């Protein structure tokens, strides 16, 4: 079992990673970090791997296809994940009527609970 989180350099991505680390430590489980652009994200990935090592959390890197929602759900299914962690951005009053399409797909298709966090 593991916790699945995407590698995003946004504030929302960092909030998701922080929450994933907290959950992994509390549950004594590993994190699967999904990377959609491994060649472009090499420096960010190295930083995340160091952060996870420093936190004492075991991790694996999963190369994605470019569609983060699909990649997170697929990784959760393949790894029998116990949790997916995603970051949500703040929305305008009109935008609050509609959840982001990627987040909505993850919530509807996830084979396990989804923890949504805000920065």
Helix content: 40-55%
Query: How many β-strand runs?
Result: 5
Ranges where pLDDT stays below 50 over 5 or more residues in a row are none
Overall morphology: globular
The N- and C-terminal alpha carbons lie at a distance of: 26 Å
What's the CATH H-level superfamily name?
A: HUPs
Main sheet makeup: 5 strands, parallel
**Helix and strand string, N-terminal first?**
EHEHEHEHE
Mean pLDDT, rounded to whole units? 89
- Might you state the CATH topology name? Rossmann fold
Task: Give me a quick take on this structure.
By secondary structure, the chain is of the alpha/beta class. It has helices spanning about 10-25, 40-55, 70-80, 100-110, and strands spanning about 1-5, 30-35, 60-65, 85, 115. The longest helix is centred in the N-terminal third of the chain and has 17 residues, at about 10-25.
């Amino acid at each position: 079992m593991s916790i699945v989180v995407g590698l995003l350099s946004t504030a929302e991505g960092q909030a998701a990673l922080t929450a994933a680390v907290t959950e992994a430590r509390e549950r004594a489980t590993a994190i699967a970090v999904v990377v959609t652009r491994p060649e472009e994200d090499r420096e960010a990935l190295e930083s995340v791997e160091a952060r996870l090592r420093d936190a004492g959390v075991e991790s694996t890197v999963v190369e994605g296809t470019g569609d983060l929602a699909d990649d997170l759900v697929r990784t959760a299914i393949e790894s029998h994940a116990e949790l997916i962690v995603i970051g949500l951005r703040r929305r305008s009053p009109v935008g609050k009527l509609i959840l982001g399409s990627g987040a909505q797909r993850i919530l509807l298709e996830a084979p396990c609970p989804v923890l949504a966090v805000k920065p």
